[in-house]
Design goal:
This protein is α/β, with parallel strands linked by helices. It folds into 2 domains: 168 residues, Rossmann fold; 92 residues, ProC C-terminal domain-like fold. 54% of the residues lie in helices and 13% in strands. It has 12 helices and 8 strands. It has an 8-stranded mixed beta sheet, sandwiched between helices. α6 links the parallel β7 and β8. The protein starts with a strand and ends with a helix.
Length: 270
Amino acid sequence: MPTIGFIGAGNMAEAIARGLLRSALYRPNEIRATDPNPERQKLFVDDLGIPCTSLGASCHETAGKSDVIVLATKPFVIAEALKQLAPNLKPDALIISIAAGISCKFIEETLGNNPRVIRVMPNTPMLAGKGMSALARGAHATEADLITAERIFASAGKTVRVAETEMDAVTAVSGSGPAYIFLLAEALTEAAKAAGLSDSQAAALARETVIGAATLLEQSKDSAQELRRKVTTPNGTTQAAIETLQAGGFAELMTKAVAAAAKRSMELGK
């Protein structure tokens, strides 16, 4: 496999790096990273065995020594990071961006010289080996480049290919989606406490219910709709709860939430 360099060593970069190491697709000495945060540098060095230094000169070094560059910076600093990288990139380097809202075209035009770019939207369950990553190919990237990127992200989850025009929707559904599930777990915990359960009981019941339902959804051949139907006994307790959620506009609210996230993704790219 080609050497890989992370520009930015935040949570998402960590999730990807852990997946690469856990799957034995990469060894620590085949990966390097740069990040301005000393705590993130320390985590990569001490926990992962991956060299990680501050930005600046080390960013240039990472660019010059890496066959694959993963842009894992915040969207609002991506332009400056690209300017630093441009003079130091290997001529045949593959650029993989996980910056929300940033288009392949923007990266291509900022770097110049027709770089090969793959845009990816992963999510934080990669930390548990259960990530979902959507990949879109830029104008100059090849099928082989896409396969390389898929191998990297499949090390900690599953992948799907999408058109780049679909990436804002992907960001809103799977990129931001884990937070929706965590919010559901929070709300269920608070509702359990309001129903008379202790803090510890409420937290355990909500947590394990979310984990169990997700596992069943993964392992079952049934759709989410069918699994819900099987739990919902006519005129029973679950039906009473579901009808209350539906009357409150649960589905419509989720649609609005996804639309708001997609809109923000589009704004970040402007």
